[in-house]
Amino acid sequence: MLAAFSRFCGTSTPARRRGPSRLAAATLVTGLVAAGVLSGAGVAAAGEEAQGQGGATAMLGGLKTYGEAVIHGDDGDLKVAAGLFEMSVEGGGMLQTYCIDMHNPTQKDAKYEETPWSGTSLGTNKEAGKIRWILQNSYPQVNDLAALAKRAGVGGLTEQDAAAGTQVAIWRYSDGADVDAVGARAEKLADYLEKSARDMAEPRASLTLDPPAVSGHPGMRLGPVTVRTNARGVTVVPPADATTSGVRIVDEKGKAVTSAKNGSRLYFDVPKDTAAATGGATSPAPGGASGTAALTVQASTTVPVGRAFASESRSQTQILAGSSESTVSATASATWAEKGPIPALSARKNCAAGGVDISAANTGDKPFTFELMGDEHTIPAGTSRTVTIPLQEDQPYDFTITGPNGFSQRFTGVLDCKTQGSEAGTSTQTLAEPSPATVGGTPGGTTNLAATGGYSATPVITGVAIGLVVIGGAVLVVLRRRESPTAD
Q1: CB-based contacts of 421: which residues, under 8 Å, 6+ apart?
Q2: How far apart (Å, rounded) are the C-alpha atoms in residues 303 and 306?
Q3: Has residue 416 got a pLDDT over 50?
Q4: Can you give the pTM of this predicted structure?
Q5: What number of other Cβ atoms are within 10 A of residue 90's Cβ?
Q6: Can you tell me the mean pLDDT for 2-22?
Q7: How far apart are alpha carbons 210 and 266 in whole angstroms?
Q8: Pairwise CA distance, residues 219 & 224, whole Å
Q9: Is 97:150 a contact under the CB 8 Å cutoff?
Q10: What is the average per-residue pLDDT within 242-265?
């Protein structure tokens, strides 16, 4: 059976399923948000920790240049759209991407962040480097279609042929899909790219700060925080309220800086008697002042081809095929106290380990002890440690690290490491313009399945999902109320 044509590449077929329906799985764990509390003597810290590692943040616009492809499955064939998406970058710029998560839904207008391969399905995909080779050696990086056609042994290529053939070749490596392009020329290009692909290393991020969190004593320079970027230079934005707190961003010699470049080492210069510069409580820790501050660096650059883009809304993962000059940014935080444990905390998704890594460094003079997932961990003074929190695929997580003196840092997100299919049948509905999935009927009585690729069980699953989301939300509210830390 040949299913109807879909405008979105997020389509499912039983032949390649690697897990239960993504919508059902994501909903079932809504009421099972992992809640962990890390506690220890500490300082007033900032609130929620952004999960992005720096770089570009963009909004998905939709599928723009595409052809058709057919996914082959045991229960039939499924015809889908295959080609280039466009994203608009926050602060300015445009991106072109292909999807590397074909069985999962796409949400129009979903927010995406530049993400290391280790935080996506590419982190456990031994063929990831070949996907980057395809991107570097095909459309739109190679926009001379005559030359591309000659290499592939094709009589000629349209932009639609080139986009479809490139996407099909990528899917064969990203999803292990049995998929063919509908057009003969696009299919020949896909075969050429698949056979020619060679392994390439992951491209570096457009902009990051390393490490993303530092700590120490007031009266010192806290850091260094090293700038990593492909931009010619970055603008350094000082902490909010820096004029009243006295916290400055300086170089190794203590000179205030407003700009930096790749390799620059930045420091937080914290006066001896400073209070919290931003975000945290200003009540002092026992024996003296404590607080937190943050700096942001921003630049305009082209994002490297092959960078992954992931969304916390579970919209299917994308990989970069082209970038205009775009705005990129990164943030780092500092925490200080006069005595006791002084933790610096950050989080990163680790798909190889199936969880989230919480990294904690203690620059204080006493151990930082916390309990997480039933285990107690102690970080001696002057040392650091990374704790991996195991999670289920598609599981939302919400970890709050708390301590005396107003210390509180929260990490939230969704573990999205696998490409998954559906256990439902292959029957689909013809779709209109790309749009977000909605619950209920559209004008004319047809359920909008544009973001899922559509199949007959979707309305049933959606109905169940609504009830589970409500139940899960209620459970989460109760858990959070029970776990709300009390001030010491």
Answers
A1: 12, 13, 14, 15, 16, 17, 18, 19, 103
A2: 9
A3: yes
A4: 0.77
A5: 16
A6: 38
A7: 10
A8: 15
A9: no
A10: 93
- 168-183 per-residue burial string, b: 16 or more CB within 10 A, e: under 16: bbbbbbbbebbbbbbb
Exposure string for 28-49, b = 16+ CB within 10 A, e = fewer: bbbbbbbebebbbbbbbbbeeb
The whole-number pLDDT of residue 129 equals 98
Q: Which two tokens stand for residue 369?
A: 């002890």
Tell me what percent of the residues of the chain surpass a pLDDT of 90.
Answer: 54
Length of the chain as a residue count = 488
Which two structure tokens, joined as six digits, stand for 354? 């199936």
> Is it the case that residue 135 has pLDDT exceeding 90?
yes
Q: Please tell me the predicted confidence (pLDDT) of residue 307.
A: 98
Tell whether the model's pLDDT for residue 8 goes beyond 80.
Answer: no
Two tokens at 252? 């190794």
Confidence label for 402 from pLDDT (cuts 50, 70 and 90)? low
Task: Give phi and psi for 276, each to the nearest 5.
Answer: -65, 130
